[in-house]
Amino acid sequence: MAKVFIDNKEYEVPNGKNMLEVCLSLGMDLTYFCWHPAMHSVGACRQCAVTQYRDENDTRGKLTMACMLDANEGTRISILDQKSKDFRAGNIEALMINHPHDCPVCDEGGECHLQDMTVMSGHNYRRYRFKKRTHLNQDLGPFIKHEMNRCIQCYRCVRFYNDYAGGKDFGVFASSGRVYFGRSESGTLESEFSGNLVEVCPTGVFTDKTLHKHYTRKWDLTSAPSVCHQCSVGCNTLASERYGGLRRIMTRYNGDVNGYFLCDRGRFGYEYVNDEKRLTRAAQKENTSGPEAFASVRKHLASSPKMIGIGSPRASLESNFMLKQLVGAENFYQGIPGTEAGAVNTVLEVLQNGKVKTPSLKEIESYDTIFILGEDLTNAAPRIALSLRQAAKNLPREKAYALRIQTWNDAAIREVVQGETGPFFVATPYATKLEDIATSSFHGDTSSLVSLGKKIAAHIRKGEQGLANHDEETGFASATAKALSSSQKPLIVSGTGMMSKAIIRVAASIAGALKEAGKEPGLVFAVPEANSMGLSMMGAAGALEEAADRVAKENDITAVVLETDLFYRTDKNTATGFLNRCQKTILLDTLENQTTPEVDFILPAGTFAESDGTLVNNEGRAQRYYQVFQPKNEMKSSWAWLDMMIHNTEDARPFDAIVSEMAEHIPAFDKIKTLAPAADYRIGTQRIPRQTHRFSGRTSINANVSVHEPKPPVDKDSPLSYTMEGYQGQPPSADIPYYWSPGWNSIQSINKYQIEVGGELHGGNPGIRLIEPQEDGATVFEENIVSAGKGRFEILPAWDIFGSGEMSALSPAVAKRIPEAAVSVSEKALQGSGLSGAEKIRINYHSGDIVLPVKVDNSLPDNVLLFPKGFKETAGMQFPLYGDIAGV
Amino acid sequence: MERPLTEHIKQDGTALSLKEYEAVGGYQGLRNALKMSPADVMNAVKDSKLRGRGGAGFPTGVKWSFVPMGDNAPTPKYIVANGDEMEPGTFKDRLLIEGNPHQLIEGMIISAYAIGAGMSFIFLRWAYHEAADRITRALQEAYQAGYLGNNIMGSGFNLDMDLHTSVGRYICGEETALLNALEGKRANPRNKPPFPQVSGLFGKPTIVNNVETFCNIPHILAKGAEWYISLSRSEGGGGTKLYGASGKVKRPAIWELPLGTTLGEIFEEHAGGMLEGYQLRGLLPGGASTDFLTPDHMDIKMDFESVAKAGSRMGTGTIIVMDDKTCPIGMCLNLENFFAQESCGWCTPCREGLPWTAKILLALEEGKGKPEDIDHLTFQTHYNAPGNTFCALAPGAMEPLQSALKYFREDFDEHINTHRCKYHN
Fold it and tell me: Does A176 lie at the interface with B, CB-CB under 8 angstroms?
């Protein structure tokens, strides 16, 4: 701790901070632009100027930038003195000379950091009387709107996009007052994290184009704390609605998980919620809808049919649990193919039984030596890739720290580090984007990657003699093992991307070997979907194949299908066969899909925006999400429909009752009861409002019908209200529906919700880890033998951030970013089949054939083909496939 | 009067060849240095009281002493000659390079030996095409003669040297921006610390010195520190200094004179005073980014301390003379337009303040000035003061303006009151 003085008051502050962080952490208001809690200080904007004094006798002091000033013992500053106040106001005046006076029509208006800082600085009247400079804007693709004239040149965008996120198609151009931030020419921003520019930009240069398409003022949004459903990482989000439409997704800060950033799939993949193909009414095949349809369901259930349930990795724990309750544990199946279920179950097994910790996303950033086995993280779990990019910076930064440069001094650190990255090894079937920071990479099919992994584990255990022959694989294994062994904090990253249990087990064995060697390794797995881990922890009688076998054997079964499009999950024959053989099928889902026309009953389920629930992410962290709004139709949370089916009622029990029942039945989920405040939680007597107190015009929209305000809906499932009435202070950390603090209208007001800026939220970061390593856990996991199928080629899935998400891919902006479905193949493999130069080829595999355009990828081994995972053309395929190629 | 740096420069405007340079004692300093230990070379430079000739006047030997030495020091280390010379009114380095490129090269080799550098760069202003050609030729000669490359003159010391021609930004004269440019990055100044001596080019220990500074080194090593100090008329530093004058003087040129020669001597004796029909109104003593001095200041010595005492800076020592028929506001406008254009755009006061300043000055010149403009210009000079900005560009840009407001205030008022510039008809 260090003793510092701010305006002659003494404070004890942690070591290693700068004075801007200190002031903000102490709750003071000090203006800033270029500093960012995750990207730290560069001293560009000069907006956090304070007066520094040598000692108590120094009455003159000198101006200095708080963000570049060490909070050392005895540091003495003033932020209230006239000199620094005048400078800060003058600085605002200067950087506003070219800023347009377009706040009333600016997308950022109302949550603009520049507005807040301007008011905070006290500047109001602008003396500049000359022409403003103007810029041409660029089309940056479907996600980001560009309005360069608003730019105040804080350099945060380029620092985030290039330095933090590793982007290469964005930059800063020109000089002086003409400085320009954008691409070298118009075109789609290529980074998977471009959406963060919306939040990183302190004003309206980069704004959310999807929001712009259905714009509403930010203070008119109804928002709820949510958890991203678009991959397994479980980033915390704020989802916002108006007039029954979801308008946007923003980052909900969670110091243990996503921090300040999201990926573009998570941010922009929400629009399927507003799709016109949403299922809004209960329906049955005989064409009667509404209450009659559900009455028919109840009538059918009253006849006590033999039932099975198909659970879903995109449905909440509660929905899956209630389905299990409805049909009985022995009749509950995972709605995913056996290969996928096997892989996810293996992840769960090695994490539950192993000795190695799986770190949180935040903790990933603390490891210094990385080995990735088999996983394309940028596409399968993008936010992990962003954290790995930060981890790769750790070892080179030690050089800067040795020069006594503080961790916050980003400008100085970058001069010393010079873009160097730490030990980073990648072994995957194909070249992935993270290879741009890799020390070394290796490409192989499943069996050679498993063999490589074994060699690495053997080398860690026994040294060089652990390896027999010397080839490329052994060389890579030896270099990787040496790097991992020489680190105290090595990290092994793998996942279900290749749908291989062996890959997962060998990754766990490498981590185990490091643990045995006395290291503190971490082990991270990406899994396919938002609740893949939860579904696996739920326990099931089998996967889709077993369910299909079941209905093939017994012909009087009623299948209750939860949020599953069978045609997306399995091949057409299996899906059709299953549906035909069931006596009745009841589907609970959100959108029309290939399964909906084939079932007997449809119950409209809420998406994450219209329901409450709990998800378990890849780390085993349970997280609660809340309904954003009550839709004006029959949509309900799936668990609510299932509860009504179980109890034959017309209304579901409250959410808390479901959670209690689940905790009682499944001990692993016991802690979930304490995940968030119960529905009867009140602050004083008040609920937590989903609308800000700045919400306007709530009576005008229906004024042509009635000037009387209708009674707002009541939320019996959470302590949140649907109105602006309620507690105006800070809610519990799991229940923050929006960020706001007096004078801080932008997302930067997160500062006020944290114990110290950039750190933990007041009351702790939300979420509870359900899986912890075992003291006496296993360190060796025998690898299954990789059994290859027939055919010259192993066909593996190629993940795509935009194309591989079942639901997010339906969002119009995301859909524009999905590449053409093509088969990736090496030139050598094409030559081997005499197909060099072919534009399209036919691929024959055991259960079918498909013609796809060719995408030559010479990083691929000659015996591996890639199919895009989860695209329309390849939905239902169960990887790995084996097959041959032929001309068309 | 000795003129070690320029005495051998030929009057016909051609460069000294290697042979010619050697014939007048060239590379003797290097021979001497290679017989000494690097530490002794460094001490010799320290003892000579040589101070940086780029403008800041930091003692060269002291600067070198911050470079990590010994077996554990990071490698490679770099020597960089700052030949960006884009300071308006300044053309001394050009003379030195075009006249005697080997003198620079020798100085750099000795400096590299002192700090243990293995690679060196000459960072040259884009417009100096002739200088670039001459350096290129001289480098070839030096390599052929074994002054560069491996095992220089059998000493076991290795050094390579490259010419890098800039694409032309004033900010590249700032040593850390120069390093960024040399690395192929945007020429923004860097944060200090770390100082380049510790973490410079590509993150390695680097010494950046001005061309003129390097040109002094061979002579210090050839003739000793005591001799070098004896050249100077200043307490504050040793050696001679290249002084120059431009503007409406009789003999605009560059002269090598003892450090500490008085302003009056330079102006009257060497520059020959004003052209017929012109009166001296004021002068910028060391390039565009120094404060005006007036005819009252003719007695001051042109060294770092004396000029600072008079409220300006010696800067590059090349005087820009303003006559009585030139509008001071017009001159400031010209300068501020330059500085505004050359701002790298990194920090707010410089990026926004300089263009704003230039626009006000233009308004004054066009007769559109307002009384409050004076206050605003004064505000800008405070706003862009040292410490308020990221580097020294904007504070430098304010120096001519703040002194013009002090010495030529009546011209500002007249522009505002009469809505015209009397110097333009």
Answer: yes
Instruction: Write the CA distances from A261 to A38, A735, A817, integer angstroms.
Output: 9, 19, 20
Q: What six digits make up the tokens of A488?
A: 């105290």
Indicate whether B281 and B359 sit together in one domain.
no
Positive or negative torsion for Cα B360, B362, B368, B374: positive
CATH code (residue B208): 3.40.50.11540
What is the domain range of residue B269?
240-323
List the structure tokens of B327. Answer: 């509008």
Q: Does A43 touch chain B (CB under 8 A)?
A: yes
Instruction: Give the model confidence (pLDDT) of A470-493 as tens digits.
Output: 688 889 999 999 999 999 999 999
Let me know if residue B88 belongs to a domain. Answer: yes
- The residues in B 147-176 lying below 8 A from A, measured between CB atoms, are 169, 171
Domain architecture of chain A: domains with CATH: 2-95 (3.10.20.740), 341-527 (3.40.228.10), 793-887 (2.40.40.20)
Q: What is the mean pLDDT of residues A278-294?
A: 85
- Asked whether the beta carbons of residue B388 and residue A46 sit closer than 8 angstroms, the reply is yes
- The minimal CB distance from A179 to the residues B351, B354, B376 is found for B351
Angle between helices A655-665 and A638-647 (to 10 degrees): 80
Cβ of B379 under 8 Å from any chain A Cβ?
yes
What would the two tokens of residue A547 be? Answer: 């369910």
User: Does residue A306 sit at the B interface (CB-CB below 8 Å)?
Assistant: no
Q: What is the pLDDT of residues B57-74, one digit of tens each?
A: 999 999 999 999 999 999
Tell me which chain A residue has its CA closest to the CA of residue B202. A418
Q: Does B387 touch chain A (CB under 8 A)?
A: yes
**B chain contacts of residue A174, beta-carbon cutoff 8 Å:** 345
Question: Is-above-0.90 flag for pTM?
Answer: yes
Find the DSSP H helices in B224-262.
225-230
The pLDDT of residue A790 is 83
Contact A501, A476 (CB under 8 A): no
Residues B207, B251 share a domain:
no
The torsion angles phi and psi of B21, rounded to 5 degrees, stand at: -65, -45
B140 and B209 assigned to the same domain: yes
Q: Where are the beta strands (DSSP E) in A404-519?
A: 424-428, 440-443, 490-495
Interface of A with B in 191-220 (CB under 8 A): none
Listed residue (A774, A351, A782, A390) closest to A527, CA to CA: A351
Length of chain A: 888
Q: What are the φ and ψ backbone dihedral angles of A862, each rounded to 5 degrees?
A: -70, -10
Closest residue to B348, CB basis, from A63, A91, A420: A91
In a domain, B368, yes or no: yes
CB contact under 8 A, B347 and A45: yes
CB nearest A153 (choices: B183, B345, B354): B345
Please name the residue of chain B whose CA is at the shortest distance from the CA of residue A128.
Answer: B356
Is B250 within 8 Å of chain A by CB?
Answer: no
CA angle B352-B356-B362, nearest 5°? 155
Residue B47 counted as domain residue: yes
By CA distance, what is B393's nearest residue in A?
A176
What is the mean predicted confidence (pLDDT) over A721-739?
Answer: 95
* Claim to verify: residue B397 and residue B373 sit in the same structural domain: yes
Residues B159 and B258 in one domain: no
Contact B193 A98 (CB under 8 A): no
